[in-house]
Specification:
167 residues; alpha+beta; 4-stranded antiparallel beta sheet; 8 strands
């Protein structure tokens, strides 16, 4: 796969794609190589062009799989948008190719009003919104299955989750 085939770049012209690609660093990951470590400062955005990645967290020495992502995919977008430390770890499940776009370059291009970066950020925001909609559906499904004695815990979580949506 070429970076120009990546869905986040579908609304870009050839020049915009070339400019963005030149701002990226190509990286090949070996099987089991860690790309992102939970708790570390984040912000760089990774475009997975080839391979498969595992997104996971470790809790009490137990690895909890969050999702497996296959190319094409974006990882690192949450920390880019929230400016927080990495919320999960990511490692390669097989030899994988990623293009890394450093946070500083993204922020500079956004400050400059680069339409290519604005379009890519809009595409990424749409992916996140889609994930959030899916999470909302799952939340409603789980709420219908939970024991009434524990429903207050879920209700408290829902209030906290949805109150954080305000600006």
């Amino acid at each position: 796969m070429k970076i120009s085939d990546f869905p986040a770049f579908e609304n870009l012209n050839d020049t915009q794609i070339e400019n963005l690609q030149s701002a990226c660093t190509e990286r090949w990951l070996d099987k089991d190589e860690v790309l992102i470590k939970r708790g570390e400062p984040g912000g760089d955005l990774f475009f997975l062009l080839e391979g498969e990645l595992l997104v996971y967290v470790k809790e009490n020495a137990r690895e909890v799989e969050l999702v497996r992502v296959q190319a094409p995919a974006v990882v690192g977008e949450l920390e880019l948008l929230t400016n927080q430390d990495r919320t999960a770890s990511v490692r390669a499940l097989c030899k994988s190719q990623v293009f890394a776009l450093e946070q500083e370059r993204i922020e500079q291009r956004l400050s400059d009003g680069d339409p290519a970066v604005l379009k890519v950020m809009l595409a990424i925001s749409r992916v996140i919104a889609s994930r959030l909609a899916g999470m909302t559906e799952k939340f409603v499904e789980l709420e219908g299955k939970i024991e009434p004695a524990r429903s207050h815990e879920l209700s408290d979580f829902r209030k906290k989750l949805f109150s954080e949506w305000t600006f």
